[in-house]
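Troubleshooting entry. The earlier prediction with NAP gave an output that would not parse, so I re-checked the input for stray whitespace and re-submitted. Clean input:
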Amino acid sequence: MNGLHATMQAVCLRRVPQGVPQAQDFELRQLPLPALGDGQLRVQVQWLSLDPFLRAQLGGRYAVPCPPLGSIVPGYGIGTVAEDRSGRFAVGDVVSAMTGWAEQAVLDASVVSRVDATLAPISTAVGVLGIPGLTAWAGVRHILEPRAGQTILVSTAAGAVGSVVGQLCKAAGCRVIGIAGSARKCAIVIDEYGFDACVNYRDADFLQTLRSACPDGIDGYFDNVGGAVLEAALSLLKLHARVVLCGLSDQYNSAERPAGPNLGPVIGARARLEGLVVYDHLADFNRCRSELSRMIADGTLRYREHIHDGLANAPAGFIGLLNGDNLGKALVRL
Ligand SMILES: NC(=O)c1ccc[n+]([C@@H]2O[C@H](COP(=O)([O-])OP(=O)(O)OC[C@H]3O[C@@H](n4cnc5c(N)ncnc54)[C@H](OP(=O)(O)O)[C@@H]3O)[C@@H](O)[C@H]2O)c1
C-alpha cells in the first residue's frame, strides 16, 4: 500500500442523536487504513446509501444495535475493488456491501455482492435495484397482491420504496394513490411515477382530500410511516383489503413510542395486515432485479436519485432524509 493512501476519511458517530439528528452528532475524521487479511478485499467507496433504518439503529430500535461512539457510521455503499486477498474478486470489480461512511472499507468476501453494471447505473444497486427495490417488490408480490381495477394507497410515495411500489401496482392495472410530504413531491409522484393522484399529508385538509381521492375505499395499503397516516388509511379499507406494514417514518426521531392506531377498521374489513422485513426476501433478489431492470429499460419503471456530493456532506444528507428533503433515493457520491 503506498504511503499516499495510508489514511482515509470517515464519518464517525460523535454522540447518540436525541430527537432529529444534528450535524454535531457526527464527525469527519482521518483514520488509518484498515489492514487487509486473508479472505478479504479492500473497496474504494464511490456511493453511499442514506437510509431511514440508520435513525432507528442509532436510537437502539433496530435488529442491529447502535454502533459504539467514535466508530464509523454504518451504511450500505458501492465501490470498486482496490485489492483482493479472497481470490473471488478482481481489482476494478464493482461491488456493494455494508461499507460504512468511509472512503475505503476492508470486508470479508462473504459479505460482498457483485454489482452488474450492465443493468443500470451502479448507484441503483442501493436504490431501485437494491434493498429499497426489493422491499417494494417483495411487499407488492407477496403481500399486497394487486389486481387490475383495484385501488392501492402508498405512503412516502416519492421515496425510494414508495415510488417503486406505486409503479408496480400501476403496471398491474390498479388505480394508485400516493401520500407524500409536499406539493412538489405530489407533482413528481403523478407526473413522473404515473400515480393517479397524490395527497399531501401535511395539508390541513389531508383527511378530506384523501377520502375524495379514494371515494370507494382502498383494496390495499403499503405503509411506510405508521401513526396518523396509517390511521387514516385504515379508515378506508374495503372488505379483505391487504396492508403491508413496512416502515415507521413518523416515529424514528421520537424516544417514546406513540400510542398505536385503532385497529377496529381492520377487523371490520376482514383485512390482512402483514409486516415486511426485506431480509426475508434476499433469495428473490435476482428475480426482482431482472424484473425491475427490464421495466427500467422499457420505460415502465422510473426512479430519481437525490445526490449529495462528498463524504463530509453525508450527515447533512441523512438529516435531510429524515426531514423529507430528499426527492428520490438519497445517496452520497464520493
Ligand atoms: N421493512 C423493511 O424491511 C424495510 C426495508 C427498507 C425500507 N423500509 C422502510 O421504508 C420506508 C421508506 O424508506 P425509503 O428508503 O424509501 O426512504 P424515502 O422514502 O426515500 O425517504 C424517507 C421519507 O420518509 C418521509 N417521512 C419522514 N418523516 C415522516 C413523517 N413524520 N411522516 C410521514 N413521512 C415521513 C419523508 O418523505 P415525505 O416528505 O413524503 O414525508 C422522507 O423523504 C422507511 O420507513 C424505511 O424504514 C423498510
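This one parsed fine. The longest strand covers residues 40-49.
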